[in-house]
Amino acid sequence: MRAIILSAGLGERLRPLTLALAKPAIEFLNVPMLAFPYYWLDTLGLDELTFNTHHLPETVRRAVMATVAPETRLHFSHETKILGSGGGIWNSRFFLQGSDSFALANGDGVILCERPSLLEKMQQLHISENALATLLVCPLDGVGSRIPGVWLDSSGRVCGFGKKSPAEGLECLHYASFMLLSDRVWDFLPAEESNIIYDVLEPRIAKGDKIMAYRADDLRWFETGNTADYLKATHECLQHLRERSSLGLCLSTILNRFTPESELKVTNEGCGLIHPTAKIAPSCILAGFYVIGAEVEIQPHARVEDSVLLPGSRVTGGTHVHEQVYI
Question: What is the Cα–Cα distance from 213 to 125, expressed in whole angstroms?
Answer without folding.
Answer: 9
